Amino acid sequence: MHLPSARTIAGLCLVLTVAACARADDYQEGVAAFKANAYPAAVAAFEKVTASAPDSSTGWSWLGLSQLQAGLVREAVTSLSRAVELDPGSADAHNNLGNALLAQGDHAAAAVHYRKALAIAPDMTDARYNLGNARLAAGDLAGAIAEYRAAIAADPKHAATHHNLGVALQRSEDLAGALAEYREAVRLAPRSGKFQLDLGLAARAAGRLQEAESAFETATQADPSSLAAHLNLGQARLAAGEAESAAASLRRAAEIQPRDFAVLYNLGLALLRLQKYDEAVSAYEQALKIKSLDPRALSNLGAAYLAQDQVDDAVAVLQLAVRAAPSFALARQNLAVAYTRQGETEKAVEQWQRMARVAPGSPAPHEALADYYLLRAQDYEAAERHYLELLKLRPDHLGALNNIGLIHYRRGELELAALVFGRALELNPSYPLAHNNLGIVLEAQGKRQEAVRHYRLALAADPGYNDARDNLQRLEPGESGPARG
Predict the structure, then answer these.
(1) pLDDT digits 0-9 by tens, 390-426
(2) Which of 10, 167, 179, 239 has its CA 20 to 30 A from that of 334?
């Protein structure tokens, strides 16, 4: 916002009527109230001034500016339009009317008056900056960027212009350019919480997590009452694995706004990681009073109940979670675990199967289903199918390789079993399970010395591995099957 110039203020009584000059105390009272941020009082004082001097552009400008600051946007537009009518050659008047129109949401009309201000005063950087704001608000990113760059060329130390240029660049998907402008803005105005917050958000979007956390922390120092700063700092600390300090930030955010869902959700997550399950349950229960069917909060509440062995409570909320979001894989995983803990194996298997369909890139359901089919159902074909799917996602999964080898062994496919156990040992030459199981296969193939060598290697890797010790001591081969992974 561009205020009337000192020269205009000083000459006020020269253009007012004698009656207005007699009310100079109203004018002085209005100026003092405006400078003290007492805008309703300023409005009252300048209403008296304009009543006494209805043809004073400056009086109407002051009244419009006071109304704008008091939130009386419509009235401000009327007063500042009157100022322009009285003095159409005033760049200040056009700029201030543009501000009121922009606050009213009329971007196009605001831009017209900013351009008129610049036609009168081409070097008026405030009008150039404000024109950039109007174009940004209208979604004209290229135009906004051009105006901000022109304003910076004229006044490179204007922090807000650098900041808003950063906003425009980020919306244009030029994240590197946006970061550069946000950094310059905080260099020029390091105590601006807003600038620090937006730098942190952009840094996080760019994967610069340490820079983001530092900016968020500075934002909380610059503006201790900023909910967004404390929330984002808590989230950054969670991402960095700093659960204790994250919880502290999120508790501060909860003090500022106790009924903010994002705050309560993230606080619950921090408390879960700290294994403070009672407190986590409380946080999620409060969050669910705000969003009763949020699947993430329901799933995490279920996880907290499971951690406290409240299995029936966990099942109840996790069922709500999967009803609310049938494709939410984590809720189905937690529900499968809860059903398993209840002894409801068939229901658990159903949830793992559904999870495999909704989250084809997740290894968890394939691992759980493969183990179930191998250990409980003894359906080797189904088990092998899921282990192979698991290996597509986790080619280095030693347990899957070991158990595929076990399936081949039980089918009598000794060559295939030896190949698979050998592959596991290529990935980890000290994997005791594969050494022991390969030894058993080699015994079954009549390769006793090679088998003995692998039993010894299994014991060297794990001296407490009793199966390998028993196999090593066995005089005749083939008396027991391989150990399971």
Answers:
(1) 999 999 999 999 999 999 999 999 999 999 999 999 9
(2) 239
According to DSSP, residue 250 is labeled: H
Q: Flag whether pLDDT at 461 surpasses 90.
A: yes
- Rounded-to-integer distance, Cα 52 and Cα 45, Å: 11
- Run of H or E including 265: helix 261-273
Q: How confident is the model at residue 23 (pLDDT cuts 50, 70, 90)?
A: low
pTM for this one? 0.81
For the chain, give every residue range classified as CATH 1.25.40.10.
Answer: 293-379, 396-485
Nearest residue to 305 (alpha-carbon basis) of 329, 290, 288: 288
**What whole-number distance in Å separates Cα of residue 186 and Cα of residue 203?**
13
CA angle 33, 35, 38 (to 5 degrees): 40
Q: Which secondary-structure segment (H or E) carries 307?
A: helix 295-307
**Nearest CA to 54 among 32, 86, 78?**
86
Task: Classify 396-485 by CATH class.
Answer: mainly alpha
DSSP state of 481: P
* CATH fit for domain 293-379, picks 3.40.1410.10, 1.25.40.10, 1.20.120.1730, 3.90.470.10: 1.25.40.10
Indicate the residue type of 269. Answer: L
Task: With a cut of 90, say whether residue 442 has pLDDT above it.
Answer: yes
For residue 190, the tally of other CB atoms under 10 A from its CB is 12
